[in-house]
Amino acid sequence: MTSELPKAELDVLAALWRRGSATARELREDLAELRPLAHSTVVTLLTRLEKRALVVKAKGETGKAFVYRAKRAPEKTQGGLVRDLLDRAFHGSGVALVASLFEAKPPTQSEVRELQKLLDSLGPNVRRKRSGPAKDSGKDVVEP
Question: Looking at the structure, do residues 61 and 103 belong to the same domain, yes or no?
Answer without folding.
Answer: no
